[in-house]
Design brief:
Bound molecules: S-adenosylmethionine, zinc ion
CATH superfamily of the largest domain: Vaccinia Virus protein VP39
Largest sheet: 7 strands, mixed
CATH topology of the largest domain: Rossmann fold
Strand order of the largest sheet: 7-6-5-8-9-11-10
Order of helices and strands: EEEEHHHEHEHEEHEHHHHHHEEH
Number of helices: 13
Structural class: alpha/beta
Helix content: 25-40%
Number of domains: 3
C-alpha cells in the first residue's frame, strides 16, 4: 500500500479518517504490513501490501481461484491484445484520453484488466475486490506508482465521499446478493461533475439465461478445481457448436463461451457457471436506478446492459447572491 492512498480512505464502519499504525517497512514508499485504524478503534490489517477491509473471500472463492488461474489472460499488457482497451472504451462516452490525470475507482477489479487500461491512459486508479483476485491485480500492476489495491466489499467501501472522477464496475454488481443496492454505493463516491459507468448481464437473452442459471445452481456447488476441469469441455465443444443447427441446440442445453482463443473460452465458461450470485437486468430497470440516484445525461451504451451517467456539478451561484455582490451592498 502506498501511504498516499490514506488521504482517500475513510473507516467503512463509522466513516472517520483512518491512520496508519505499525507500518513495515517503516518509512518505505510501499507498506507491506501494518494496520489502519480510526478514532473509534475500528482496525483493518494491511497484509501482503494490501489493506484488508473484509475477513476473507466469503461467497467469491470461485473468483479468487479463477483470477489466479487466469491472472494475465485478459490484461492487455500481458496478453498482447487490445481487447480490454476496446471494451473500456465501449463503456465511456468520451475518448479514453479523458482519463489522464483523473482519479478512478474500479469496483470488482478482478486481476486488473481495466485498471491496466486506465493506468496506461495516465489515471490514478484504485482497484477494490472482495476476492483474493486483488492480490493477482497487485502482482500484475503493483509496479505502477499510480495503482492502489484494496480487498473490500462494495457494500462497505472505505472511501471518503466524492473522491473519484470516475467510478466504474464492469461485470461485477450482478454477482452480489443485491445488484441495485450495490449500484447505490457508486454515486456517493463520485465527485460532482464526475462519471459513473457500469456493465451488467442482460436479461434479454432468456433462451440462454434460463438454462444457464439451471446449470450454474448445480455446478457452482462443486469444488472450483473440479468445475474448472469440467469447463475444459468448452475447448473441443467449440467445433461442433460452430455448426449452425447443432450449435443452436447445443447452446440451449449447455452453453459455452464461443471465444476463438482456447484459454479465454475456458475462462469465460467457468466465469458463467461458478458464481454463487448472478442476476440479469433490463435497460429500463437500470435507467431508473441511475435516475433515482440523481445522475444525469444517462446513456445506454453497447454490449450487455452498459450504462453511464454524470453526477451533476452544483449550479453556479447567481451573480447577485455571490459574497462579492453582498459586500458591495
Ligand atoms: C466477473 S469478475 C469481473 C472482474 C473485472 N471487473 C473484469 O471485468 O475483469 C467479478 C468480480 O467481482 C468481484 N465481487 C463480487 N462481489 C463483490 C463485492 N461484494 N464487492 C467487491 N467485489 C465483488 C469478484 O470477486 C470478481 O473478481
Ligand atoms: Zn471507525
Amino acid at each position: 500500500m502506498k501511504s498516499s492512498l490514506l488521504e482517500w480512505l475513510a473507516c467503512p464502519v463509522c466513516h472517520e479518517a483512518l491512520t496508519l499504525r505499525e507500518a513495515a517497512p517503516a518509512d518505505a514508499a510501499e507498506i507491506e504490513s501494518g494496520e489502519l485504524a480510526c478514532r473509534s478503534d475500528h482496525r483493518f490489517p494491511i497484509r501482503k501490501g494490501i489493506p484488508r477491509f473484509v475477513e476473507g473471500d466469503v461467497y467469491v472463492k470461485n473468483f479468487s481461484f479463477q483470477w489466479w488461474e487466469h491472472r494475465t489472460t485478459q490484461v492487455d499488457r500481458y496478453g498482447r491484445h487490445k481487447e480490454s482497451t476496446r471494451k473500456f472504451q465501449s463503456h465511456l462516452d468520451v475518448p479514453l484520453s479523458w482519463l489522464k490525470g483523473k482519479r478512478v475507482l474500479d469496483i470488482g477489479c478482478g486481476p486488473g484488466r481495466f485498471m491496466d487500461v486506465a493506468l496506461a491512459e495516465g489515471a490514478e486508479v484504485v482497484g477494490v475486490d472482495l476476492s483474493f483476485a486483488v492480490d493477482a491485480a497487485r502482482a500484475n500492476l503493483g509496479m505502477e506508482s499510480r495503482a492502489h489495491f484494496i480487498q473490500g466489499d462494495v457494500f462497505a467501501l472505505p472511501f471518503k465521499p466524492e473522491t473519484f472522477d470516475l467510478v466504474f464496475s464492469f461485470g461485477v454488481l450482478h454477482h452480489t446478493p443485491d445488484c441495485r443496492r450495490a449500484f447505490e454505493a457508486l454515486p456517493p463516491l463520485t465527485r460532482p461533475g464526475g462519471k459513473v459507468s457500469i456493465c451488467l448481464y442482460s436479461a434479454y437473452e432468456r433462451v440462454l439465461v434460463v438454462p444457464g442459471n439451471f446449470w450454474r445452481k448445480i455446478l457452482n456447488r462443486l469444488p472450483p478445481r473440479l468445475l474448472y476441469a469440467i469447463c475444459h469441455l468448452a475447448g473441443p465443444l467449440y467445433y461442433p457448436y460452430r455448426i449452425p443447427v447443432i450449435g443452436h441446440f447445443g447452446k440451449m442445453i449447455w452453453n459455452i463461451s464461443m471465444r476463438p482463443e482456447w484459454r479465454w473460452r475456458i475462462l469465460d465458461t467457468y466465469d458463467w457457471y461458478s458464481p454463487k450470485y448472478q442476476s440479469a437486468h433490463t435497460h429500463p430497470e437500470v435507467f431508473r436506478w441511475f435516475k433515482e440516484a440523481g445522475l444525469t445525461d444517462i446513456q445506454v451504451l453497447e454490449s450487455g446492459i452498459s450504462m453511464l451517467g454524470n453526477k451533476p456539478a452544483p449550479a453556479p451561484m447567481p451573480l447577485d447572491r455571490r459574497p462579492e455582490a453582498a459586500a458591495r451592498g
